[in-house]
Amino acid sequence: MRTLDLTPVFRSTVGFDRMARLLDHAMRATEAANVPTFPPYNIEKLNEDEYRITMAVAGFSEGDLDITAENGQLVISGKIEKSEEETRNYLHRGIASRSFERRFDLADHIRVNGASLEHGLLHVALVREVPEAMKPRKIEIGGAAAAKAIEGRKAA
């Protein structure tokens, strides 16, 4: 088991608790022997602020899939009702129809923009929407008058 001590990094940072949880979760996931591999998926970066998760869900219909986004986590799950499957007599069964649940941790300001199912592929569109207050802004440098105004606000 490998351990990584990030204590020195977090001594000089404020508000990165979520980052620490994500790193801890990632370390555990890579060390775990039972990392889920079904269903296979791709994550694409379409441009600076748009992403897409594409998941191979052959045999699943829209009613069999559930997509939930809550508290910075995207959960995609699928479950096929077995009533129709039990009546069939397979000679070879290579298409998996087992239930699944995939979890994706989303970065701040990432929201799910929509989802579509076509040709056995589930596409989930994600977009980054940074609030105006969080975007970089230009700070003007004032002269002596600005410095006196700042000092006046401190005194009040």
Shape designation: elongated
Structural class: alpha+beta
The overall strand count is: 7
What assembly state would you assign to the polypeptide chains in this entry? single chain
CATH topology of the largest domain: Immunoglobulin-like
Percent in helix: 10-25%
* Number of DSSP helical runs: 4
Helix-strand string = HHEEEEHEEEH
Look at the structure and give the CATH class of the largest domain.
Answer: Mainly Beta
The CATH architecture of the largest domain is: Sandwich
Largest beta sheet: strand ordering: 1-2-7-6
Calculate Rg over CA atoms.
24 Å
* Strand composition percent: 25-35%
Number of domains: 2
- Distance between the first and last residues' Cα: 57 Å
Low-confidence stretches: none
Keyphrases for this structure?
156 residues, 7 strands, 31% strand, Immunoglobulin-like, three-stranded antiparallel beta sheet, alpha+beta, 2 domains, 23% helix, four-stranded antiparallel beta sheet, 4 helices
